[in-house]
Write a structure and sequence with these properties.
single chain, MetI-like fold
């Protein structure tokens, strides 16, 4: 059996070997990934490239206005122009940077808050766990979109307010999952052994608990990103999310919605961009959950 002392042993020769083994496992997992997972990873990579290199890929400036609103597709404007005369292709490219970037920062902040509080509640229990859990229950009892609308209408629709409000509201879901997963880990012998050795709380959380809760939390990160991404797009569609002249896919749908009545599919382009990224992330998350669940395909 593996003892606590064996668990602590880390030699300098073993570390490079462990890294090589980890890289080999990653390569093997990627080779065995299904087509749906590869499709998701390719789409995500394409979106990331577009978001990072948006200023070089976009043909015009993000808020540059031309004297031809609702211009048809082709010629100078590949995808036409919007109601103000701004190039739609440019707005789509910059929308990837703004929408995805804000959603990613919001999700990271949500996980930083929710996981920290969830692990603390699982470790300390008692009145700390009860206080945090009841506060989370109260916040989760209010529909997220309605609560976000109310708070953004009260405090203003700046990017900072949008990130903080959505992150705090979404962190309640992260708290529930991280607490539930950590509850099964904190009772393990190696955690108790670390406490008896006098290890600090931060060390125990970082070295003993986090490695054992990361697989489900990584999968949850992908799902939470999708929910945050869709929430921000919905808020922008309703007019209280990302504000103009900043390009955003949700507001682009709202601004050009009247074109649908004339048979123009231009408003569907940002909607399709939202849907495609959501589907791609879910494909990758499903594959990752299958890999980490221990389930095997039957042949």
């Amino acid at each position: 059996m593996t003892t606590v002392e064996d668990h602590q042993l880390r030699t300098e020769d073993a570390l490079p070997k462990a890294r090589r083994t980890r890289l080999s496992l990653i390569r093997r997992a990627l080779r065995s990934a299904p087509l749906s997972a590869w499709f998701g990873m390719i789409v995500i990579a394409a979106y990331v490239i577009v978001a990072i290199f948006a200023p070089w890929l976009a043909p015009y400036g993000e808020a540059q206005i031309f004297p031809e609103p609702y211009a048809p597709w082709g010629g100078q404007f590949v995808l036409g122009t919007d109601q103000l005369g701004r190039d739609m292709l440019t707005r789509l490219i910059y929308g990837a940077r703004n929408t995805i970037g804000i959603a990613l920062v919001t999700t990271l902040l949500s996980f930083a808050v929710g996981m920290s509080l969830g692990l603390l509640a699982a470790i300390y229990r008692g009145w700390i766990d009860q206080l945090l859990s009841r506060a989370v229950d109260v916040l989760m009892s209010i529909p997220l979109l309605i609560f976000a609308l109310m708070l953004l209408s009260t405090f203003g629709s700046s990017v900072f307010n949008l990130i903080v409000i959505i992150a705090i509201l979404d962190s309640t879901r992260v708290f529930r999952l991280s607490r539930a997963v950590a509850m099964n880990v904190v009772v393990m012998d190696f955690v108790e052994a670390a406490r008896l050795r006098g290890e600090r709380l931060g060390w125990i959380m970082r070295r003993e608990i986090l490695p054992n809760v990361m697989p489900p939390m990584i999968a949850e990160f992908g799902l939470r990103f999708c929910f945050v991404f869709l929430t921000i797009s919905a808020l922008s569609f309703l007019g209280v999310g990302i504000q103009p002249p900043t390009a955003d896919w949700g507001s682009m749908v709202r601004e050009n919605a009247t074109l649908i009545t004339y048979g123009d599919i231009t408003p569907l382009l940002p909607a399709a961009a939202i849907a495609l990224l959501t589907v791609a992330v879910n494909f990758v998350v499903d594959w990752f959950l299958h890999r980490t669940s221990g389930l095997k395909d039957e042949h």
